[in-house]
TrEMBL record:
Ranges of biased composition (kind: Low complexity): 136-180, 190-221
GO terms classed as biological process: intracellular protein transmembrane transport; protein targeting; protein transport by the Sec complex
Organism name: Streptomyces sp. R21
Protein name according to UniProt: Protein translocase subunit SecD
GO molecular function, one term: protein-transporting ATPase activity
Assembly, per entry: Forms a complex with SecF. Part of the essential Sec protein translocation apparatus which comprises SecA, SecYEG and auxiliary proteins SecDF. Other proteins may also be involved.
NCBIfam families registered for this protein in UniProt: 2A0604s01, secD
Keywords: Cell membrane, Membrane, Protein transport, Translocation, Transmembrane, Transmembrane helix, Transport
Region annotation (Disordered) ranges: 136-222, 564-587
Domain of life: Bacteria
């Protein structure tokens, strides 16, 4: 039974080069991937790179005094997190503070400005029919009929296409008076009181030309006054246009056309909401010169609502054959409709890539349950974090130097194995941190640096366990090669148990904490896994190879494995016990 075991052991000892080649190939591949991706340094968090800290204060909606609660605040934090992560911003922090504030920390870097714009945007989207529209401001004048249109795709999956983000248009008669515009609003109010996709109230009149009720007439008159006074060229009026209007009521709104001119609108009740959108994506439109577009797929109920509104609008004359896509009170597009549509829609026009991605991202992750205002915006410099990082790196360098000095003084030649293993572990850690930045948004912050420094001790501990097991075998009188192979199984068990405990602690810490502490836990867990990889694929195979070298095998005094210095027992040999003299007389 001993012979086969010896053969297998010899076979395992004869191929340590394969493990070394495997880990060196892995390092070369990771380094190559790092240079190919163009990222040669890890992403830095807000404490090291600087950035912006935003405090958002929740506001109660009209008629909803109890809207600010823990459930809505947690939902808002979740949506903001998904919006920022959807843009690929690394290590953005979104967390509540008190009962009505949310703190958002956005580090400098790719798409950080977009994220700053999006975090507090409510993103309440509605599709509203256009009742009337005209250019706003002193230069307002009747404009031509809209060039935007809606049509179905040949595949049968309908789509809506708008040529401008807010296409310029007028009422059916360019010389429309306030009376005719007021009549349009009054008719819309009457229509909203009849059974439709958005309302089930009974009809208030059955005559061919019914007279509106006094309340409807008063609402129409008030809305007309708002429309007449509205000047969308003034930011203050744009901010308050339609403020407090319910989705079931007509309202006024502002929008900007492709010529960057402001238009004002009277819009009917919302027929389709943003919650009826299943998904949205920003795509480059290769079929025409419009550039970027946003595609939307509706839910089953949303598709039915969209089909109903486009069926109604397709029978009207401009501008009442248009519907406005209203995002947070602003008209982002107002395409015209000439046929019934359903299923999906496309918003096209003078979008650039950033605008299309912003709109798609907000539509994709939904509207915030609350309205927020910016209470404060603070720019965070990297100076303080840089000083702390400098101090942390100095502390890490001192700790590493002390470990190396100890290894050299106590283990002598074996310290070369430990130092080489530490260098391999450092190379793997650096390349992985660099590649994980663009891959999963990992960003290196001060706690993560602390985790990497703690990992030095964990890795060095694994080497010490292995070396001491080898020395124990040599003290028992064995030569180096069998000592390495006999020491490995016992050392392996100890290393795996120790690393498992460290990894378990890191995993629990990552799950139960938020913010920067997760960076520490993630780095600690990553380096613990790398410790296992390095010890199994580098340290042990390298030790097996060195055990064949005369310098180590002969127990040189500087090898760290000198049997005399270790107090080794002499080899056990069976000796013949001298026989007692025989008394011939007694015999």
């Amino acid at each position: 039974m001993a012979a086969p075991k010896k053969g297998r052991s010899a076979s395992a000892q004869s191929r340590p080069g394969r493990s070394l080649a495997l880990i060196l190939i892995a390092i070369a591949a990771l380094t190559g991937g790092m240079f190919i991706s163009g990222n040669t340094t890890p992403r830095l968090g807000i404490d090291l790179a600087g950035g912006t800290s935003i405090t958002l204060e929740a506001k109660n909606e009209p008629g909803q005094p109890n809207a600010i609660n823990k459930t809505n605040m947690d939902t808002a934090v979740d949506i903001m997190n998904r919006r920022v992560n959807g843009l690929g911003v690394s290590e953005a922090e979104v967390q509540t503070q008190g009962n009505k504030n949310i703190i958002v920390n956005i580090p400098k870097g790719t798409n950080s400005k977009q994220a700053q714009k999006q975090v507090g945007t409510t993103a309440k989207l509605y599709f509203r029919p256009v009742l009337t529209t005209e250019l706003s401001g002193a230069a307002a004048s009747p404009s031509p009929s809209p060039s935007g249109s809606a049509s179905g795709k040949p595949t049968g999956k309908a789509s809506e296409t708008a040529t401008d983000k807010a296409t310029s248009s007028t009422s059916a008669t360019p010389t429309a008076t306030a009376t005719s515009q007021g009549r349009a609003v009054t008719d819309a109010l009457k229509a909203s009181s009849t059974p439709s996709a958005s309302s089930s109230a009974p009809s208030s009149s059955t005559s061919a030309s019914p007279s509106p009720s006094s309340s409807a007439a008063k609402a129409a008159a008030d809305l007309q006054k708002q429309y007449d006074k509205l000047d969308c060229t003034k930011p203050a009026q744009r901010a308050t246009a339609g403020q407090g209007a319910k989705s079931t009521d007509p309202t006024v709104a502002c929008g900007q056309n492709s010529s960057k001119q402001w238009q004002k609108y009277i819009l009917g009740p919302a027929e389709v909401a943003g919650t009826d959108i299943k998904k949205a994506n920003a795509l480059y439109d290769t079929t025409n010169a419009q550039g970027w577009k946003v595609t939307m797929d509706f839910t089953s109920s949303g598709s039915k609502k969209f089909e109903n509104i486009t069926a109604k609008l397709s029978k009207n004359q401009p501008p009442q054959n248009q519907f406005a896509i209203v995002l947070d009170g602003d008209v982002v597009s107002d395409p015209s409709v000439n046929q019934t549509l359903s299923g999906s829609a496309e918003i096209t026009g003078s979008f650039d890539q950033t605008e299309a991605q912003d709109l798609a991202n907000m539509l994709k992750y939904g509207a915030l349950p609350l309205t927020f205002k910016e209470a404060s915006v603070t720019t965070v410099t990297a100076a303080l974090g840089g000083e702390q990082l400098h101090a942390g790196l100095i502390a890490g360098a001192i700790g590493l130097a002390l470990v190396v000095i100890y290894l050299v003084a106590y283990y002598r030649g074996l310290s070369l194995v430990a130092i080489a293993s530490l260098l391999v572990s450092a190379a793997l850690t650096y390349t992985l941190m660099t590649l994980l930045g663009p891959a999963i948004g990992f960003a290196l912050n001060l706690p993560a640096v602390c985790g990497a420094i703690v990992a030095i001790g964990i890795t060095a501990d694994s080497f010490i366990v292995f070396f001491e097991r080898i020395r124990d075998e040599i003290r028992e009188g064995r030569t180096l090669r069998p000592a390495v192979e006999r020491a490995w199984p016992r050392a392996r068990r100890t290393i795996l148990v120790s690393d498992f405990v460290s990894f378990l602690a890191a995993a629990v810490l990552f799950i139960v904490t938020v913010g920067k502490v997760q960076g520490f836990a993630f780095t600690l867990g990553l380096t613990t896994l790398l410790d296992v990889v390095v010890v199994f694929l580098f340290t042990k195979p390298l030790m097996t190879i060195l055990a064949r070298k005369k310098f180590f095998a002969s127990g040189h005094s500087w090898s760290g494995l000198d049997p005399k210095r270790l107090g080794a027992k002499p080899p056990l040999r069976r000796t013949r016990r001298p026989s007692a003299p025989v008394d011939t007389k007694e015999a």
